[in-house]
């Protein structure tokens, strides 16, 4: 069966700038793909090509096997898209805007009203349903955009920074909503918020300068951090000799380092591939010997460290684009 969503070597050039440089992806139902990258990496441009809002310079996008270029209407019917920023039509109310959006997707009569009611309920918009969109808070405007994206219960959802501008409670609600829809949809979420990746995503794709530099699970992403999977523990000086001997004997420990602490004890740093086995065995040895251990902590890796290591600095990026503005 065709993947729910597929990018085949998508390229987008704006004059001298290559915003997207041969991006290939397949996303299946059940996946929430976190699309990460620094400002200007090409996330929005990729999403616009996937949804048929921007023609690629090269490559193709497919939705459920339907070519976005050859049959845009059929492809778009299967997609819900939340663009960056607020919805247009600020002078409309959410009720008017969602009714209009449902009609543009071919829904009429009772089916249209049911779709609008479902989306209004899912995004808790009841309170503001008859207030003009331009008078809504940023968070509510974002939710109106999200309601519009899920109106027709599409197979594929492409959400450009869905939690941008939301307060922590609203972020939590939107993440729950995404999680609830995951089972039967393929979902792409672009975000700058690294914690969001672990909260909702089953997969991480990191892009830099229009190219994919990482594609894997959030755990694999975190695992790329320097020091990920290391265990640190402080032991008293008189335990060191025994501890070195016993830790060296453990198969789970692939490397060991030790440094004196200012108060005369010793900090061990133990590394191993299997973090859970490492912590179990090392704590077993410490318990067995009855050593008074301190500051026992496992470093699972920091997401922002990996992000920084794999992507270029904004200043490098601007240099490469020479600050030029080119129209599509
Ligand atoms: N219409 C356009 N004309 C010229 N350059 C453009 C145009 N649209 C996008 N770009 C450039 O393409 C590159 C990628 O932009 P894009 O908006 O896709 O990045 P992004 O990853 O979504 O960034 P952000 O996180 O800031 O939203 C940038 O260098 C941007 O300036």
UniProtKB/TrEMBL annotation:
<comment type="similarity">
    <text>Belongs to the ABC transporter superfamily.</text>
</comment>
<dbReference type="InterPro" id="IPR003439">
    <property type="entry name" value="ABC_transporter-like_ATP-bd"/>
</dbReference>
<keyword id="KW-0067">ATP-binding</keyword>
<keyword id="KW-0547">Nucleotide-binding</keyword>
<dbReference type="InterPro" id="IPR003593">
    <property type="entry name" value="AAA+_ATPase"/>
</dbReference>
<feature type="domain" description="ABC transporter">
    <location>
        <begin position="5"/>
        <end position="234"/>
    </location>
</feature>
<dbReference type="Pfam" id="PF00005">
    <property type="entry name" value="ABC_tran"/>
</dbReference>
<dbReference type="GO" id="GO:0016887">
    <property type="term" value="F:ATP hydrolysis activity"/>
</dbReference>
<protein>
    <submittedName>
        <fullName>ABC-2 type transport system ATP-binding protein</fullName>
    </submittedName>
</protein>
<dbReference type="GO" id="GO:0005524">
    <property type="term" value="F:ATP binding"/>
</dbReference>
<dbReference type="InterPro" id="IPR027417">
    <property type="entry name" value="P-loop_NTPase"/>
</dbReference>
<keyword id="KW-0813">Transport</keyword>
